[in-house]
Design a protein that fits this description.
about 15% strand; 11 helices; globular; single chain; alpha+beta
Length: about 350
């Protein structure tokens, strides 16, 4: 085995180690990101894996008790992520805390600081400023959290912000970055690529390197944001066309879900389909040993389009609100237990490009 093969096996070992829960990356995330940033390009699999997790769950590291241990380049690589799932004001406040922790001469009470102390912090965080979406913050966040610390910003940016939050459509000198992309809080991007592959009739495991070019996914509902009730589902998801339902199980990284190629409408009937499927996998990896794809076996019972708690797949294969999954009309069971508890769930409209 040569050195390249050894590095490749090491990367896969670490990814598999973290496949069932996030404990490993919680304990070792700082070291992992520092190592990747110090050896750019050496660990491409780990870099993609770590960025995927961090974009979805940045609070695993940012704001943690060990957060200050991140190297400058490691933190910069995280803040540069376009799909970082964190409010800009939270990124800013944690950057300030990180900058203070990196300078032992600075105390946490900024009201007592001298001009020189502000200059020290300004220099420490200077490389991060251009990557923070200041213009995507609310007026309240700007007024109470950014404006008082304006001396930490380049003069041009400080002046542009002062004008922008009074006259939003004014002409600015500063380049305004777009909002960060809103990806799922449950899945990684690669999971959506796999679902797209399945929609097109693909087998359980997707070939290496296959990308999603056929479909895009528009979030209709997130339980933790919009509510977990049936009426919330009807309001957000009925009559929207083809959808994917994703359910994150409580106290687990396991995801179960299903693809409805028709629509939800509350017709109180079973809908016929040959292309629906249900599935399970884990949220932080795509390990072929833990993926289950279960296609419809009896098409007359593909979709349970109930008017009450009977929304789901098959006669009992996956019911969203009954929180049950007992094999009946699909090819394989997707969960060992017939019942489950929901940590969060999302419903996406499937749009053909």
């Amino acid at each position: 085995m040569n050195l390249y093969e050894l590095v490749d096996h090491l990367q896969q070992f670490i990814i598999d180690l973290n496949s069932l829960n996030n404990d490993w990356i919680i304990r070792n995330g700082i070291k992992l990101f520092n190592t990747i940033s110090r050896h750019k390009g050496v660990f491409p699999k780990l870099e993609e894996f770590s960025n995927n997790i961090m974009s979805r769950e940045p609070k695993l590291l940012i704001g943690s008790s060990e957060f200050w241990g991140l190297d400058n380049d490691a933190l910069l690589s995280i803040i540069q992520l376009d799909n970082l799932n964190m409010k800009e004001i939270d990124i800013w406040e944690n950057l300030i805390k990180w900058g203070i922790a990196k300078n032992s001469s600075l105390n946490s009470d900024m009201t007592t600081w001298s001009i020189d102390e502000f200059e020290t912090l300004k220099e420490t965080i200077s490389s991060f400023i251009q990557h923070i979406r200041f213009f995507q913050m609310t007026p309240q966040e700007y007024f109470y959290k950014i404006r008082p610390l304006g001396k930490l910003l380049p003069k041009e940016l400080e002046e542009d912000l002062n004008v922008y939050y009074i006259v939003p459509d004014c002409k600015l000198v500063t380049k305004v970055l777009p909002p960060r992309k809103s990806y799922s809080s449950i899945l990684l991007v690669n999971h959506f690529n796999l679902i797209s592959y399945w929609i097109d009739g693909g087998k359980e495991v997707m070939p290496n390197g296959l990308k999603n070019g056929q479909y895009k996914y528009s979030l209709l509902l997130r339980g933790s944001r919009d509510g977990f009730g049936i009426e919330d589902f009807k309001l957000k998801c009925n009559n929207k066309g083809a959808t994917v339902v994703l359910i994150k199980l409580k106290n687990s990284n396991k995801i179960i879900g299903g693809y409805n190629p028709i629509k939800w409408s509350g017709s109180n009937k079973f809908l016929n389909s040959n292309s629906s499927f249900i599935f399970s996998f884990y949220s932080n990896t795509l390990n072929s040993f833990t993926i289950v794809l279960s296609r419809v076996a009896i098409s007359n019972y593909a979709i349970a389009d109930g008017a009450d708690k009977n929304q789901g797949f098959g006669e009992s294969d996956l019911f969203i609100f009954k929180r049950s999954c007992k094999l009946a009309h699909y090819s394989a069971k997707i969960h060992d237990s017939e019942n489950f508890e929901i940590d969060d769930y999302e419903v996406y409209k499937v749009i053909e490009k």
